[in-house]
Write a structure and sequence with these properties.
It contains 10 helices and 2 strands. The chain is mainly α. Helix 4 runs antiparallel to helix 5.
Length: 257
Amino acid sequence: MSFTTMSTRPLSRPTSFSLRTNASFKSSRAPRSWLLHTAGHEAPVIATARPGYAFRCKCAGESWNNVFKRWATSTTLHSTASDPAEMEAIQCLEQGTQKLEEGDIQGAKELYERSVEIKRNASSLFNLGVTHYHLKEFDSAIAAWKESITLQPASADAHTNLASAYIISPVARPDLALHHLHIAASLSPEDPEIAFNLAAVLEATGQLEEALKQYKRAKEYGVERAAMHIRNVSAKILGKTMKSAESTDSSAKKTDS
């Protein structure tokens, strides 16, 4: 599938865009997510919760160091594997997650790379992408998540993270971000984080009516801060409508005269 490159005008980047983190995939279906609210932050923290581990995402303006303080504990992948190479890959994956718990992103990256070298699977590639992202190696993060999606197409989290990388990259690709967020939304239609992120990119690209719909969905599913964005986007739409009406009236008056 090919994509048309959008205009090169400066992108109004979303002020709050969450990254999904995960220790391992438990099945071919992306598990459902919900909100975890953390006191002391201007906006609620969006987290992806799964059996055995709950991961925290970054708040707007928050240091990644604070995020790593609440990194979750890894859940062991199917440790009954009899293949020695697969067992080693799983061990590297678990050790990499331990490094993340300790805040050692580079160490985690090296272990995930080793796991991928031994046996390429969606879990190791997903986590490798997370470390690349935190190290601002966006091209490498994109490559890792794209391959992870190839192995596990139904991962809403991988599509969401890929969208984040396309937005945060020095050369933003909002068209590709929207493509993957739409896929993520179709895979997990009641996920509030995905709806909010989709709305943020739609607003940034000037698609205000669609952004308003997604912000309303996000609020319906529990993202309280979406209410502020609903008001802001509604005001933008109203202003745009009034400006259009004034332009029409002005044109009509000129015609009459």
